[in-house]
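New here. Your pick:
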Amino acid sequence: MQLQEVRWRYYLYSLTETQGLIAPVWVLVLQARGLSYTDIGFLGALYWAVLVLAEIPTGYIGDRIGRRRSLFIAALVTAGGVGGLAFARTLLSFALALTAWAVGITFRSGTADAWLYSALGRSGIADAYTHVRGRGRAVKLAATAITAAIGGVLYTKSLVAPFFLIAGLLAVNAAVVLSFPTVSDGQEHSRSESWRFSTTRQELTAAFERPGIRGFVGYTVLLFGLVEVTRTFVQPIVVGDQVGLPVAAVGALYACFNIVAAGASALTSRIEQTLGVRRWFLLGPLLLAGSLVILPLVPAATVPAFVGMEAIWHVSQTFQSRIVNDRTRNRRRATVLSVVSMGGGVAAIAFRAVGGVLADTVSPLLMLALLALVFVVGSGVLFTVTSGTVFRTTETDISQ
C-alpha cells in the first residue's frame, strides 16, 4: 500500500474516532440524572480501573486476532457504551455503560498505532510514521474542537442527542476500519508457540530490557499522570473564584485546547527535525511543569498554562509512541503499547487520588504546583537514566 493511501485512510479513521460532542457534557448528564459527586467520583475511578485492567488482555487479543478486527470491535463496543449513557438512569446502568466505553477504548489503545506503523513499514516508509500519526492526531483534535463547541449547544436542546450522534459516528468508524488492509503482524509464526502467554511475557520482558526503555516509559507515564490530574481540575479551577470564567465559556475553552493541540500535532515532524526528540523531552515537559508551579502566584496564567499543556502532551505522546514502536518486535507491538497505556492509567489513578486530597487540604492551584514539583524531581532522575540510550535511533529495531 502506498503512503498516500495509508495516510488518507488513517486520517478518515482519526476523524470518525472523535468523541468531542460528549466531552464537555457527559458529567452534566450524570448530574441531571440525580447522581451525587460521590457517585461521579466512583464512576471516574471505575472507568480508569477498567482501562488499566483491560489494557493487556485487549492488547493481546489485538495481536492475536489481527489489528483490523480489534479496531472494528473497539468501534462497536465504544458505540454501545456511549449509546448506553443516553439510556442510563441508575448508578449501576451508568457503571455498565462506562465499563463498555472503557473496554472499547482499550481495544483501540496501541492497536491503531501498531497497525499504522506496520502498514507504513510494509511499504518501506516507516520513517513517515511521526508525520502521518502527528497529522492524524491533528485531524482528530480539530474535529474534537469543532464538535465540542457544537456539543455544548446541542446539549441545551436535547440531553441525549450528543450521545446518539457519537454512537452513529463510531459506527461509521467501524466501516472505515473494514476498508483497512490486513497487515502482517507476525501471525505466520507457529500459534502453538508464538501466542502462548508465557512467550508473550518473555517478549514483553525483552522489550522493556532494551537500554533506557523502562526509564523512558516511566518518564512519559509520570508526565501523563501530571497531565491527567490537571485535566481533572480544569473545570472547577476556571469556573471558580481563582479564574472566574462563565460556565458557557468552558465549551469554547475546550475547543481551544483541541485547536492548539491539533496545531502542535501537525508540527510534530517539524519539531523532530528542528529540535530533536531528546531536546524536546528535556525542555517541553519541564516547561509544562514550570507553568503549573507558578499558578498559585500568578493565577492569570492558568488558562495559557492549560492550553500549553495540551499542546506539549500531544507532541510528547506521538514521540513516545514512535520510540516504543522503534524498539518493539512487530508481532507484539500492540501488546507492548497497551502495557505502556496501562502504566499511564495507573499513574492517572494515583495522581487523581492524591490530587483530590491535596486540593481539599490546600487549594487546586497549589496542589498542581506541588505535583508539578514532584514531576520535576522524578523526571530528572528518569531522564538521566534514559539520556544517551533510548533517544538514539536504531534502524535495525524498526525493521524487526
In short: Residues 187-195, 393-400 have pLDDT under 50 and may be disordered.
